[in-house]
Write a structure and sequence with these properties.
heterotrimer; A mainly alpha; B alpha/beta; C alpha+beta; A: Helicase, Ruva Protein, domain 3; 6 helices; C: 4 domains; 4-stranded antiparallel beta sheet; 62% helix; 12% strand
Amino acid sequence: MNIKNFTIVIVYLLLLAAALVPVVVVSAQQPTPSDDQVNAIARKLYCPVCENTPLDVCPTTACHQWRELIRQMLAEGKTEAEIKRYFVDYYGARVLSEPPVTGINWLMYIVPPVLFLGGVYLLFRAFQTWKRLGKDPVSGADKPAKPVVGPEPTIGSGLAASDEYVARIEEELEKRK
Amino acid sequence: MSQEPNRNTAPLQKRGVPPWVQIMIWIGLLGLLGLLAAMLLKAKNPILAIHSTVPNFTLTLFSGSEYNNAQQVRLSDLAGKVVVVNFWASWCQPCASEAADLETAWRSYQDSGQVVFLGVDYVDTGPEAHAYMTEFNVNYPNGPDMGTRISQIFNRNLGVPETYVIDQQGILRSIQIGPFQSVAEIKAIVDPLLGR
Amino acid sequence: MLAQFGFGVFVLTFLLSLFSMVTAVLGYFNKSDRWVETARRAMLLTFPLITLAALTLIFLLVSGHYELEYVYSVTSNAMPLYLKITALWGGQAGSLVLWSWLMAAFASAVTLRKWERDRELLPWVIVVTSVTLAFFLSLSIFYENPFVRWWQTTGGEFVQRMFAPAGAIAITPTDGQGLNPLLRHPGMILHPPMLYLGFVAFVIPFAFAIAALVTGRSDDRWIRLTRQWTLVAWLFLSLGLVLGMRWAYDVLGWGGYWAWDPVEIAALMPWLTGTAFLHSVMIQEKRGMFKQWNMLLIILTYSLVIFGTFLTRSGVLSSVHAFSQSAIGPMFFAFIGITFVTSVALLLYRWKDLRSDVEMSSMFSREALFLLNNLLFMGVLIVCFWGVIFPLISELVTGQKVTVGPPFYQRANAPLFGALMALMGVAPLSAWGKSTFKTLGRALWKPSIPSAIVPLVLVILGVRNWIAMVGFTLVALVIFVTLFEFWRGARSRQKKTSEVFLVSLWQLARRNRRRYGGYLIHISMVVMAIGILGIELYQTTTQKTLAVGEDIQIAGYTLHYDSLAQFPYTDGRIVTRAVLSVFQGGKFLGELYPRYDYYPSGQPMTIAGVRSTLADDLYVVLVNWENVSAAQTPFKVYHNPLVNWLWIGSLIFIFGFLVAAWPVSEADIQER
């Protein structure tokens, strides 16, 4: 289920193998990393020349080369983080699926929550004001609509209440006709 | 519900929008429009204009490729020389058709010391790039476009091959989109800049 | 000759819409009903005229007039008739014609009514729609003319012009390039018109809102008049989005349906504000509150429509959906600028007139929960808007492009969507006016019990992912609450009228369609959420290069590679097709036929082999970018659990919508 963990384990094992037997089998290649291992990393990277296409589903020759590059780096025992760093160094930050948190990119992550929390605050404050106004007995001349569907204080307290509730709906519908 | 008050009579204080909020709204709106306008201009003119000064950049060279015994070339260090910046990639087929011509042209200027050719390898993979340079016997300084920083200077929508010729004063003088067809074509651009 | 005719009609319609605008303005300021009536009739005429031009273009497409650049670029001899017709929206120029056509349809439909009671609004409704129409027509006339033809100049160059350049010879190619293969799919045939219908229809509520602002009518009239229009716009926008997802799933071959591509988001944004509007407008109708906010929302919705269209078509963004670089950018920018500035100025000017008394005694009343819903939709909007805009800012400031991809949107939006689902579960039980924590809790506990079983079942089934637990529990809560509401209403009606239960249910829904249709739409949304949770959390994928006779395993399935065949198809494409047998636990389940087609134009198209059940989809792609041979065939297999519920949900959605919005009588609109 968890490809990421799987990949980490595999990469770890490869690293371990690389550390243990570097001299003994100089000529023997590491087992070639499988397509799945390559794709697990490729799907987190974006094609540097096409717009908004993840590397694992990109059909161009260039992307094929990049996937082979990932395979080669995996075979060399590079970790996912190292591969990503290499890609960013060579092809720019746009290969990442999210902007790295540096410089102006902070705005990317800060602005939406700030705006949203601002909205929450405004709404909360408005609620407070409205509540006060609601309790205010000095009712304005132009309180439009007393609730059409009136308050349902007994809602949910048994079927009798529901009857009342449906009756009100019916009544309202009759009025509308 | 069917009452139709034209303009509600004011029971509560009918405040308009406070001026500072209005100002902020306008700033936000104009900012957005400004951004769109700027991007539109950029999308319309993605390429650095001819006769404009080329911003400085640094090209880190491939191992085995060097300029003046250094692994880096800065554009500002090349003042007084004509600089031919060629963007290429190993996966680009048209690039291959001009590779030999570029090499020949470079060799013809090599002794004069007045012209520098820089090959910028655009979003490419190392091994293939080296294979390409070996195959076409490319000997002038070449390096990867790290982080696509150099290509972004010249063309937002860069495609390879593209070649930019910069004169002795650091001013962009010629843009070639697509491959050169012959050595003569390259020389026809560079020679006038050398006063030949 | 026909091309000139079509172009002539276009120019005529353009002038007519300008005329309509001018007479409407004159009529308003001179208080002359005759002028307004003239404007109305001019508006009415635009639809038949554009229909004429559009039919001309369709005829040219169908009959293979390749001397026209547009016909040449989107059709070919080998294409079947229905594709030649749909090629109308296969390119920028044609899709603008479709846009204007639909626009005129709505504008004319709205002016069919005489609007005696709302005569003062009429001139400004006409002004807004005719300006918009004139704008889109001008794009077609001046920049993206579908009627231009090929010429060869004296210098030997091939050029596209409406009229012959001096000394040029007319060129008539014998065959065209054909439609982009990606667009030759049923989903793509319906997706653009649906989306455009949704986009275009929002101009009607917008026009009425602007008319109300200009004339200073601060009552709810504009909302009542445009309620059906808004619903229709929203339906088509929703359908357009769903069809787009289906198209992506079937055709793009990456095992998903939504990539958080900027262009997808551009279409989603008006849907978000539109949905928020549909909810908050009920507060205004029931309680007369939040006039300002509703006005703001509808203006925002329409602004996002044209903003999204601008992003897609101006070349500012590039993406899979984007039309190629085009000259319409500056013109479009001017239109957007005018629309935004006018709307904001009007809104600020009338803001205080729109102020309404707010009376809200409880944070658990239905109106309070609706506001919360609006806040959450605005939250999603902020995330989406910023995600689309930020790369532009970044590129402008640092000169470097950045990508904002799915992880950002998923992380930011998942909690918001979760909260929205929770609201869907709670809000239907709350009452207008006074609903307290206590009454709400009392209403909620019954449907909560069966929902609480869901996480237990999931744990027993071995689910450990907490997002899945929360998600599926919320799905269950919404379904149970909604069914409970149906049951409660029908049951008490039954008691009163002693009808059969089903009859009661029917009567209940029939007499309060908007409420119960809305509930059905809630159910459809969470049914879709089942599919989304399934694919987002549990999608697995594997890729392997097989020789004939070898197997590939995924999620308990075994796929046996039987054979590979390559053959030409009648329309000239070369089809490469593999046959795989699917086994589960040794049992044969069926065959899958992933394939890819190479079109004569050199464009490949990947068509996945999909085995679809309620539990999961098995989605096999022949990876055409690798070298394919019988001895070495790369396959990519996706296992997409529950994804079918996404499509089932969309069917329920349509049903719920029909319940909610089946036309009500004119008298009803007038009265309410």
